[in-house]
Specification:
Elements: H1 2-10, E1 23-30, H2 39-46, E2 51-58, H3 62-72, E3 78-81, H4 84-99, E4 116-123, H5 130-142, E5 151-158, E6 162-166, H6 174-182, H7 194-205, E7 217-224, H8 231-238, E8 243-250, H9 255-262, E9 271-274, H10 284-291, E10 312-319, H11 326-340, E11 350-357, E12 361-365, H12 373-381, H13 397-408, E13 420-427, H14 435-442, E14 448-455, H15 461-467, E15 472-475, H16 485-492, E16 512-519, H17 527-541, E17 550-557, E18 561-565, H18 573-581, H19 594-605, E19 617-624, H20 631-639, E20 644-651, H21 656-663, E21 669-672, H22 682-689, E22 705-706, E23 715-718, E24 733-735, E25 738-742, E26 747-751, E27 768-771, E28 777-778, E29 781-783, E30 792-794, E31 798-800, E32 819-820, E33 829-837, E34 842-852, E35 862-866, E36 882-884, E37 887-889, E38 895-899, E39 905-910, E40 913-927, E41 934-950, E42 962-964, E43 982-986, E44 997-1006, E45 1010-1019, E46 1024-1035, E47 1039-1044, E48 1052-1053, E49 1058-1063, E50 1071-1073, E51 1084-1088, E52 1098-1100, H23 1101-1104, E53 1106-1108, E54 1111-1113, E55 1115-1120, E56 1132-1135, E57 1143-1146, ...
Parallel strand pairs: 1-2, 2-3, 4-5, 4-7, 7-8, 8-9, 10-11, 10-13, 13-14, 14-15, 16-17, 16-19, 19-20, 20-21, 24-30, 25-31, 32-34, 35-38, 56-62, 64-70
Antiparallel strand pairs: 5-6, 11-12, 17-18, 22-26, 23-27, 25-26, 28-33, 29-33, 33-34, 34-35, 36-37, 39-40, 40-41, 42-55, 43-49, 43-51, 44-47, 44-48, 44-55, 45-46, 45-49, 46-52, 50-54, 51-53, 57-60, 58-61, 59-60, 61-62, 63-65, 65-68, 66-69, 67-68, 69-70
Length: 1369
């Protein structure tokens, strides 16, 4: 008892105990053993390494001596005095010698290598003894170094309530802590509410005001003797991500609860059991070690947000069926909340949505709803169990996933086309649907990834069939959901390791308008409809969709038809494919009225308003899996128009004859045995629907007479095909033009007379071919159009003579002539292409003659090719502009001369730049900017254009396959550099990049796990370096790791670039001391890593880093050649009135490596005589924009240029671009039309409404142009203002009289500031119906009166008889 009192109560700081001193206990005992032996307490005292026991036995009994020996534990510390005379002096001297000898071993206090904030939560009830607890804790404090500030300690005691003994920031030395702990009071309370103590520590100790540090781990060390439902509070504490709990179970029977409190996943390493508090001393060293040991994982492993290098759209799908209890539902929520702590929300990374489900799904929040992980966590925490949007009695996992696919992953809900779509479904039981069939089809699209978590359910075979074993996670209960969170995170946050195969784009040689017609019935639902959508989406993705080539629309059908999108809705293949994949599955209807669908497509899809083009063939492509009689009839009606073509995809319908008759050509019929076999015919269908169709029309012949050849015999074969159109008009006579060609070898005259008879309008195309030994062809196209006014048009002759005209630099002479008609005259056009061949050269001339209502600029094209320099015969060409609906369009003039001995081209060389000078002679022409006047003279001027051609340096040497590393000092032992928060730079020439390429792999030796970011730096000026790019990897355990970089993350490097790295915490990469060896690095840089390092950051390594000499870090990197860049195919069009600086296109250069710099340049095209390349610019991102206002498309509709792209290695890609400038007039939807109104139609009445649209979105203004006959009864209004709706209304003074005018023609003009369109509405006045009241003749009423007499008599007699019969007595 005395020894126990001394140890537990007397030897205290307050009684003079010194913290740094050793404590020696000397026990004097005589005669016989005590009833309280010293062995037990002596052993306890000795367990503390600063305590020693000594004992002196005075005439000891055998039992006493044995007890004392056990107490001191060392026989040399026991002294027996059996005789005062002989033993006393000797024992005294020996004892003094032992007491005055200092211990040889020095104990070093433990210093943690990370920051720790530790709180002891100590039970202080009747069932514990404070003397044991305080001594146990104070001795722990004695073995820890608090001087560095790495560790702080607080103490909370609890019974029914909790009390703070001291906070984290109250004491910072072992002595102060021991003294405070030794003063811990005792209580006699029977309450033991550990949950109260834990909550108190969470809410009152771990706060910044009481010393909690944000960069420190939080340790909760609690003692307890009874249960108090602490697992939930423990889970809440651990959810912070930086808190750990340690349980010291003092003789309780609640080990399961304590273990669940500290960890959900079965980690018992932080649970310690002792039978009683008197035995706490036995675990002192264990507890000391635990509370001073940092977690094995890096401080950031559980809390650092994951930011993948690709875009991921993620949906959590929670089980909300009735089989899920409230606690289990909360466990689901906590699991997804914990996952969100590792996910960073960003536009370039991960976005998150959430769906709950029963027999269907419900979107709780969309992908675009929350922008931070914290917001998502809050939203998940607020989800309530038991949604009424679906039945909770049945679980349909397939419907939940399908719902997410069709609702969550939509652009309007935040879905990104270029992101991976990840589904994470959690289930607790049987699936009533067909998830095993649906999910494998869904994941055929590589953009979709599905993961299923099965909790507490053993029959998971269908789920494994659905996603495979690698994407299936099976956990025994809900409480263990978070156990494998880290492993699970690495699965669904991984980006694709391989790039998708390039898609071969098919561009037809003609314009096509295609409609996909998808069956959407009960027989094509679920995974079948997925197969169908993927089939049509794959077709669309391989077709070059654009406004000017192929347009695609889509409809679905059952007993009704539904437009998914129109021909003019989307303008790219990717947009069309995406829209098809997002068609919702509506499977409740079994009817498949495909004939109605074909008719619907003809009437509603192939309309101008919905994007149909008159010069494009219409393709109908439908799928069918059952019968529908009558479809062949509808198909035959559609195919009567030769521009309509039908294609059928028969999915084992059993009625091939019907579908073959529908398409009319077996080459347009395709059969598959099932929906899953659709891919087998994809290439055949693609080839069929991108092949331009050939069809023949029958026309009426017109005879062409060809005159005889005067110089040599000529074989004349007149061949004519004429398409004749007849309309009733006044007569017009046209005299045909005669073209005479006189050459040394051939003279040919071709005449085509055409006369229009009265009341006819005739359009004639004539072709005449003359064949001779040398090919000489004269073709004349004559187009004559008449007007309502009598007009005579005479074509002027064109004569070509062989009289030589010798020219040196005037190879071609062009004479422009005009025919001008007065107002109200229509346009007459005559086109004559003539090809004449001689023995020395060939001249091709296209002669076009038009009459026009206004002077315009003229330009003529003449091409001459000659093998030698020879005199060129002068060619006289008659030309004028093409006039379309009174819109004047100038022609482009080009003179191209190619001759091996010509002086027309001169090349000079100056330095590294070569110049090509082209000289041509053209008539002096002055044209007003408005294009309304032109003056010409016979004088000639010479125009010289000088185009610089840049000569680039040869490409930089490529890397091939090369590895960079230091010499292999294998005999030197690797060392560890434990510096925290540093970044490193290998700045020796041996490891600098010496070629142009990219980094394909890294290899390092590392001593532990953690994240490392490898960096590439590029020297600039003044000791500064610019960060080029970074690769981030997770290194596992210790050893050598070789990492292959993903293709899209391989950093482009240049000669002189150097590499470096940094780690999240301590430096993971090992080094070797090589200071005495040759080749040892001497310029390795080391410095504190800035927080926000991004590519482009500049850092002065020379001034702001320390240089490490004599050490090399074991880092190796592998280089390879960079990727060859190339331009894809383009079809670019732009509206001709786009603003200056307006966006035209993104060139989207292919093969650009990660962080590679590309230099773009626009150069002139040799075919571009108008310098149209100057209208555009391209920036460093490959974005084309305009630099000046474009000309109206009627004057210039093609802009030509060459775009080059130089990569960082000096390799060049180039592409020749033709940019089409377009502008269409407004489209008036439903005019022309005719209506009928009553004569008494009131004023201010809307009598007709139409919609007016402009393809390019230009503002449109429509007005009443005029009426015929002229009247003030009508007006045109726009209501609501600014909308596309225009109304024809009666004016406030409108009066109609059938006898005056029974019909009006109303002309509505719509202007979009660039073009005009006109629509005509015919309003018929209904003839009033005059009604005359009917007046009966005079005898009518007399006959009625006479006829009533017998009826009255009969009625009277009958009533009398009835009365007598029934009531008489």
């Amino acid at each position: 008892m005395a020894l126990e009192y001394a140890y537990f109560e007397f030897v205290k700081i307050k009684n003079g105990k010194r913290l740094e001193a050793h404590t020696y206990y000397v026990l004097l005992s005589a005669y016989k053993s005590s009833s309280y032996p010293a062995a037990g307490i002596g052993t306890t005292i000795r367990t503390f390494n600063k305590n020693k026991m000594f004992a002196v036995g005075w005439l000891p009994s055998t039992a006493l001596e044995s007890d004392l020996l056990t107490a001191v534990g060392d026989s040399s510390h026991y002294f027996a005095i059996n005789s005062i005379a002989s033993d006393l002096v000797h024992a005294r001297q020996s004892l003094l010698q032992k007491l005055l000898t200092c211990p040889t071993a020095v104990d070093t206090p433990i210093l943690p290598n990370c920051k720790l904030d530790v709180a002891f939560i100590v039970e202080n009830s009747y069932y514990t003894d404070t003397k044991y607890t305080s001594t146990f804790m104070s001795e722990i404090m004695n073995g820890i170094d608090f001087s560095s500030g790495n560790i702080q300690v607080a103490v909370v005691t609890y019974t029914s309530t909790a009390v703070t003994l001291f906070n984290l920031n109250m004491y910072n030395s072992s002595e102060e802590l021991r003294q405070a702990i030794e003063a811990m009071p005792s209580t006699s309370s029977y309450s033991r509410s550990l949950n109260v103590g834990l909550e108190h520590a969470r809410d009152n100790i771990f706060t910044s005001a009481n010393g909690d540090r944000a960069d420190a781990w939080n340790y909760y060390i609690f003692t307890g003797t009874a249960s108090s439902n602490t697992d939930s509070i423990g889970r809440d504490i651990r959810s912070s991500g930086n808190a750990y709990l340690f349980a010291l179970d003092i003789g309780s029977s609640y080990a399961t609860e304590w273990k669940a409190t500290i960890d959900d996943c079965g980690d018992e390493s932080r649970y310690i059991y002792v039978s009683g508090d008197e035995n706490l001393f036995t675990i002192r060293s264990n507890v000391t070690s635990m509370m001073t040991t940092c977690p094995q994982l890096s401080n950031n492993t559980d809390s650092i947000p994951i930011s993948p290098s690709c875009k991921i759209d993620l949906v959590f799908i929670l089980d909300d069926t009735t089989s899920i209890s409230i606690a289990e539902f909360d466990d689901q929520l906590n699991f997804f909340i914990n996952i969100m702590k590792n996910i960073e929300i960003s536009d370039d990374g991960i976005r998150v949505a959430l769906v709950t489900y029963g027999n269907n799904g419900f979107m709780v929040f969309s992908l675009e709803q929350y922008n931070t992980s914290a917001d998502v966590q809050t939203a998940i925490a607020n989800i309530a169990r038991g949604n009424s949007a679906y039945s909770r009695s049945y679980r349909y996992a397939d419907r939940a996933i399908e719902y997410a696919s069709e609702v969550v992953f939509l652009e309007e809900n935040g879905d990104r086309v270029d992101a991976i779509d990840v589904y994470i479904l959690l289930t607790h039981g049987h699936d009533y649907g067909t998830v095993e069939d649906y999910v494998p089809v869904l994941t055929l699209d590589p953009i979709n990834k599905v993961f299923i978590i099965v909790v507490a359910y053993s029959s998971y075979a269908v789920y494994q069939t659905a996603v495979g074993p690698s994407n299936l996670f099976i956990w025994p209960d809900f409480s263990s959901l978070t156990c494998n969170r880290q492993n699970f995170l690495t699965n669904f946050t991984q980006c694709a390791t391989t790039s998708p195969l390039p898609v071969n784009i098919t561009t037809p040689d003609c314009k096509l308008d295609i409609v996909f017609i998808l069956e959407q019935t009960s027989s094509s639902k679920d995974e079948k409809f997925l197969h169908l959508k993927y089939f049509f989406a794959d077709l669309a993705s391989q077709i070059n969709v654009s406004p000017t080539t192929v347009r695609i629309a889509a409809i679905t059908f059952n007993n009704n038809q539904q437009t998914v999108f129109n021909l003019n809705t989307y303008s790219t293949s990717a947009e069309v494919a995406y829209a098809i994949k997002k068609i919702p599955d509506e499977d409740s209807i079994s009817y498949n009225y495909v004939d109605d669908a074909l008719a619907y497509a003809a009437s509603d899809i192939f309309t101008v308003a919905n994007g149909d083009r008159a010069d494009a063939d219409n393709f109908y492509v439908f799928s069918i899996d059952s019968s529908r009689s009558g479809t062949a009839t509808e198909g035959e009606l559609i195919r009567r128009n030769v521009t309509n073509h039908i294609f059928a995809v028969d999915i084992a319908s059993g009625y091939p004859t019907e579908w073959k008759n529908t398409v009319g050509d077996e080459q347009k019929y395709f059969y598959v045995s099932s929906y899953s076999a659709l891919s087998a015919v994809k290439s055949e269908v693609l080839a069929a629907i991108t092949t331009c169709q050939i069809y023949t029309t029958t026309t009426q012949p017109t005879t062409t007479t060809t005159a005889e050849v005067t110089t040599q015999p000529t074989t004349t074969q007149p061949t004519t095909t004429t398409e004749q159109l007849t309309t009733t008009y006044k007569p017009t006579t046209t005299t045909a033009q005669t073209t005479t060609t006189t050459m040394a070898e051939i003279a040919t005259t071709t005449t085509q007379p055409t006369t229009t008879t009265p009341d006819q309008l005739t359009t004639t195309s004539s072709h005449s071919t003359i064949t001779q030994d040398q090919l000489k062809t004269t073709t004349t196209d004559l187009l004559m159009t008449t007007t309502s006014q009598p007009t005579t048009t005479t074509d002027q002759p064109t004569t070509t003579t062989d009289q030589p005209t010798t020219t040196t630099d005037q190879p071609t002479t062009a004479t422009d002539q005009f025919t001008t008609t007065t107002a109200q005259q229509m346009t007459t056009t005559t086109t004559k292409p003539t090809t004449t061949t001689t023995d020395k050269y060939t001249t091709s001339t296209i002669t076009t003659q038009h009459s026009t209502t206004s002077p315009v600029q003229l330009t003529t094209t003449t091409s001459v090719t000659s093998p030698v320099s020879v005199p060129v015969t002068s060619q006289t060409v008659l030309a004028t502009t093409h006039v379309d609906n009174t819109t004047t369009q100038p022609l482009t003039t080009t003179t191209l001369i190619t001759s091996t001995a010509s002086n027309s081209q001169t090349s000079t060389s100056q330095g590294s730049t070569s110049y090509t000078t082209t000289t041509s002679q053209q008539p002096n022409t002055t044209t007003e900017s408005t294009g309304t006047t032109m003056s010409s003279s016979s004088a000639w001027t010479t125009t010289t254009t000088t185009i610089p051609t840049t000569t680039t340096e040869p490409p930089i040497a490529g890397c091939g396959t090369e590895s960079k590393f230091y010499p292999d000092y294998s005999s030197i032992i690797s060392k560890v550099d434990n510096d925290i928060g540093r970044m490193y730079l290998l700045n020796d020439s041996d490891t600098a990049v010496s070629c142009c390429g990219r980094i394909s792999g890294w290899e390092v030796d590392h001593h532990t796990s953690g994240f490392v970011e490898f960096m590439v730096w590029r020297p600039i000026i003044g000791g500064k370096y610019k960060l080029v790019g970074m690769n981030s990897f997770l290194l596992n355990d210790a050893g050598t790791t070789n990492v292959t970089v993903l293709q899209e993350e391989r950093i482009a490097v240049l000669p002189g670039d150097v590499i470096g790295w940094r780690c999240a915490e301590e430096n993971l990469i090992m080094f070797k001391d090589c200071s005495s060896l040759q080749g040892c690095p001497t310029h390795t840089g080391k410095t504190v890593s800035p927080r926000n390092l991004v590519p482009g950051t500049e850092f002065n390594w020379t001034a702001d880093s320390a240089v490490i000499s004599g050490a090399f870090y074991v880092v190796k990197f592998t280089l390879e050649n960079n990727t060859a860049n190339y331009f894809p195919s383009y079809n670019i069009s732009v509206k001709d009135h786009i603003k200056i600086g307006g966006y035209v296109a993104n060139l989207g250069l292919k093969g650009v490596d990660y962080m590679e710099s590309i230099t773009y340049q626009i150069l002139p095209d040799s075919l571009d005589v108008n310098d149209t390349w100057k209208y555009f610019s391209v920036n460093s991102e490959g974005i084309l924009r305009t630099t000046r206002r474009l000309l109206p498309s009627r004057y210039l509709d093609i802009y030509r240029m060459i775009v080059t792209a130089d990569d960082s290695c000096g390799n060049t890609a180039s592409v020749s671009l033709d940019i089409s400038a377009q502008n269409w007039p407004p489209f008036i939807q439903s005019l022309p039309n005719s209506i009928a109104i009553k004569e008494d139609t009131p004023p201010n009445e809307v009598i007709y409404t139409t919609e007016v649209n402009d393809l390019y979105g230009d503002p449109v203004c429509c007005t009443l142009s005029h009426t015929h006959p002229q009247t003030f009864n009508f007006n045109v209004t726009n209501d609501p203002p600014g909308s596309s709706l225009y109304h024809v209304v009666t004016t406030r003074t409108a009066r109609f009289r059938y006898e005056d005018f029974n019909s009006y023609m109303i002309y509505m003009c719509c202007d979009d500031t660039q073009n005009r369109a006109e629509g005509v509405l015919i309003v018929n006045i209904k003839k009033p119906v005059v009604t005359t009241p009917y007046t009966p003749p005079k005898w009518f009423f007399t006959s009625i009166a006479v006829g009533m007499i017998p009826i009255t008599i009969i009625t009277t007699i009958g009533c009398g008889l009835l009365w007598l019969t029934m009531f008489a007595t």
